[in-house]
Amino acid sequence: MNDDKLTSRERRALANLPREEYPSDLLEEHTVQALRTRGLLGARPAAGLVLSPLRLALAASIVCAMVLGAFALGQSQGSRQAADAMIAMHQQDSWQTAAAVQQAGAAYLTALSNLVNESGNQSPRQQAAGREAALAALYQVADRMVTLAPDDPVSSRILQGFQQVSTQADPLEAFEEDKRQAAEQQVLWF
Amino acid sequence: MKHVRHEQHTERKLIAAIVDHGDESAFRQLYRRHTPRLLMVVQRLLAAGGRDAEDVVQETWIRVVERLEEFRGESAFATWLTGVGLNVARNQLRHQNRRHAVDLEAVPEPPATAQSCDDGIDLERAIALLPDGYRMVLVLHDVEGWTHLEIADSLGVTTGTSKSQLFAARRWVRSYLGTKSEVSHE
Question: Does the interface ipTM go beyond 0.85?
């Protein structure tokens, strides 16, 4: 047996040895910092929620799908609203244009009726001017109508009539000719 | 006894908080409770204070927190902590290339007798001057109260080696102190 016995004095001396030594505050801070650096202290994922590569990939996929889905939904709703707004705007424009054409047509007919009704009180020159203005307006209307509806037979025939007249004689020149002939007749009369 | 049970319960809660949440506050409580004693033991094992001992204490805590999940509470936390500290201290001694770092079988000659009037200081100095292998066994057994079985397990030697080293260490210290008074029962 190699173990021996301690004397009472030795036992007292051993028992009286200090058991604690207080370290510097720096040691605690260095130790905590070292543990933080190793990820052993501070924010640590809770047990059961460990982010494995598979879970990270799955989470990333879900986030991407949600972002893309939200983007597509927003784009779809945005384009639908834009299309509705465009259609409404076009419809409103068409209605306004149709109303304007209707008003202009009514005004044209009113003016032409007035011209016809008062033709007895007007000079031949005034009548010719009114007739010329009415023809010019009729030509413009027929021309626009052909552009709007190329197959419209009425408009096409009106334009064809204007073309035939223009090939035969200029209306103003014909008016001037009529006027000259009437003067000659008057001269001959007197 | 009731106080000890309460302490152990609190300690288990602190350990759980560190393991589950990396709770820094819990760690600081555990650190402040055990570090003064750990530092004292490390200083005796190394026969050195200051930076060397503090480096060992820091490394000990890092290893302990890394392996805290493995702590089952079968022994006292302080004992487990000191065991980890002992291993870190032995590595430190190896790195210092000390002549008798962990050579537990070496039996050096006792030094000349000390001339001092303070038993405590003399004993502390004698322990510090012991060869490393002797010092470890004497500190763990006579100062910290470990059994030969615990020492043998921690140092990786047989209980017989632990006992023979303790015998040699005491003889060495007595020779240094130059005293051998009445024998008491262990």
Answer: no
Partner residue opposite A41 with nearest CB, options B27, B32, B183: B27
φ/ψ of residue A9, rounded to 5? -65, -40
Could you tell me the domains of chain B?
2-95 (1.10.1740.10), 101-186 (1.10.10.10)
Write out the H or E segment, with its range, that includes residue A60: helix A53-117
Question: Within chain B, where are the H helices?
Answer: 2-21, 24-46, 50-66, 77-95, 119-129, 132-138, 148-155, 159-177
- CA pair distance A66, A21, nearest whole angstrom: 58
3-state SS assignment for residue A7 = strand
**In chain B, what is the greatest distance between 2 CA atoms, to the nearest angstrom?**
55
Strand ranges, E, within chain A: none
- Per CB-CB distance under 8 Å, the chain B contacts of A49 are none
Neighboring chain B residues of A29 at a CB cutoff of 8 Å: none
Closest CA to B184 of A97, A56, A38, A9: A9
B160 interaction partners in chain A (CB closer than 8 Å): 2
Percent above pLDDT 90 for chain A = 14
**B73 phi-psi bin (left φ>0, alpha ψ -120 to 50, beta other):** left
Global pTM reads 0.56
CB-facing half-sphere around the CA of A47: CA atoms within 13 A: 8
Residue B20 identity: D
**Domain ranges across chain A:** 84-117, 123-190
